[in-house]
Structure formats: structure tokens, C-alpha cells
Design a protein that fits this description.
Strand order of the largest sheet: 1-24-23-22
Number of domains: 1
Radius of gyration: 19 Å
CATH architecture: 6 Propeller
Helix content: under 10%
Order of helices and strands: EEEEEEEEEEEEEEEEEEEEEEEE
Amino acid sequence: MNPRLLLGAALALVPVAAPRGQATPAPTPLLAVERIWDRAEHCAFTDLVVVGERRYVSFREGTRHVFGSPGLIRVLGNAGDGEWRSVARIAEDGSDLRDPKLELLPDGRLMLNVGASRYVGNELRGHSPRVAFGDAATGRFGALVPVTLPASIVTGADWLWRVTWHGETGYGVVYHPRSESGALHLVRSTDGLVYELLATLALPLGGDLPSAPNEASLAFLSDETMVAVVRCDGPTVGSFVGYAKPPYERFEWQVIGRRLGGPDVIVLEDDRVIVGTRGFPTTPVAGPGRVDDGRSTVLFEVAREGAVSDLVTLPSGGDTGYPGLALDGDELLVAYYTSHRGTAAIHLARVRAR
């Protein structure tokens, strides 16, 4: 069973209410935040997985958010003793490795899904997915190998941004960086290496609706319904949440009235859908990238019709976001990065769930 979907009985995230006047603030669901890695100039784009008493966090190390020196992937492990140790360091000559996503396979191995970008100067010349498989007891990984996507959707700039396993099948959404088509493709695999096309997603784009879809994360409700949360970067602020019944070829889409950045999604036992993402101010603030520019890493609940209920804003600012979510007993773990204290560093938050 996928540990990203595990939950004990009747859990509920407690929302945070802003104090008004002399009213007593609502109790925060945030239990603790730990800075777990800052040994590179720029650490970002996180994910995590819980395997029994062990926790693994993956992220990219580089010199900048983009460009600069080619990025490499680091994986940290914690065996429950409170100490985070580097257990894997993965690089590929000539590639900027980004967005490492961790999953536990049905056979008990770890899977690390990575995007490999190739640049000439500051021009993106190609992008393709990679995968590595690891030992869940040690966090050690084998070599990165190319992922095979359906030939009908391959463009040379293909991003399999995150893979979510449900039963014996891994599902993911492929998008094409800087493509004008806005095409998103739902693919599936039984080995994490070779994928087949399941559907091309028909989002209602353009006009007064969001456009330029890209990063997408998937989860599953108790009745096998697939939930897709899709980031959009067009001029109209908003993103999408979609629902599809098996065989997952047709979605019903609703607009989320929020701009997202690196979204992850997790479903609680009572089928509430929780999204973690970079948050943006509703009013633009001068000086993008400053620690006071209004950006943050946030958690919110999204209802079936797309309505949003804010849960918690994590200590964060500046270059931040791209969280990974996992359940650990009665706590929700959130791995994320933030530069609000200077260096873009990796943090781990524990959020109360009851």
C-alpha cells in the first residue's frame, strides 16, 4: 500500500484562524519545523517518503533556482533517531537534475523519479525523465536510467513530473516545458521504466479560465476515483482539480482560484483532499525573490467543486515551496525548502492531524 495515502482513524487537520481584535487565536496545527539541510548554495524541490520507522527526503542541490551549475540530487535518511544523514548523491554528466520524487513500489523498493534538463547557456535544449531504484532499508540507489514514454507524445522536452502508485500501477502526468500546445498526458506503468498512454487530458483552457498547464500531482479517493491537481501559469490566476473514475480516461475539472507552484496532493482517510504548494500573494509585491515578496509554502484543503480552505502557512518566504507530503502515524510530514532566512535550505514540518 502507498504510504502517502496511509492514515489512522478519523484524522482532521485543524485550520488556522487569524486573530481579530482581542480574540484568542485558534490553535495552530503546526507542531514543529526543523531545518535539516543547508550544505549547498541552493537546496530545493523536495519530496519525502515514510517506510516504517525510516524517513527519506529528496531534493536538488545547485547554485541557483535555475541555470548556474548543473543540479544534482541528494537523498537524506532518518532512521528514527532524530539525525538526518546523506544516504545518496546522484549526478549525471551534462544534465541539470531537478524535481526528485520518491515513491515506495509495491515490491518494497524505493523509486526516485527525476527530470534531466539540458541547457546551452540559458536556453533549454531538451528535457527527459530518469528513474533510479533504491533499497528501502538503506536509501541507497542504483544508477539513473532513462524512462521510456509513449512514442506518440515524445517531443524531446518531456517532463514526467511525479509518479503516484496505486496498487500495482504507477500513474503520472507528462507535460512539455515551454510548449504552446498546453498538452498534458496521463500515463501509467507497472515497472516505473516503460509507460503507456492512458489519456490526453482535455482541460477547459483559455478565455477567462486558467491556461498553460504544467506540473500535476495525483492521488486516489477511497472509491478508486483519481484526483489530479494541475498548476497553470497563464495570465488568468487559477489552477485545476480534476476527478476521474476508472479507467481514468475522462476527468471532470473544477477551477481552483489559486496560483500554485510545485503542488503535491494527499488524500486523508475521510477523502478530504489536501494540497501543499508554493503560495503567492493576492496582491503583487515589488521585488520578486525577496524574502518579503509574499511567497510562502502553504497547505490547504480543496473541495470537490474547487473551493479552498486554508490550513496552515509554514515558516517560509522568498524562493520557497515544492513540498512533499506523507503521513507518519497521526502527523502529516511536509518536506519543503525556503530562503526566508537567507540560504535556500531544506526544512521538515510536522502538522497535527487528529
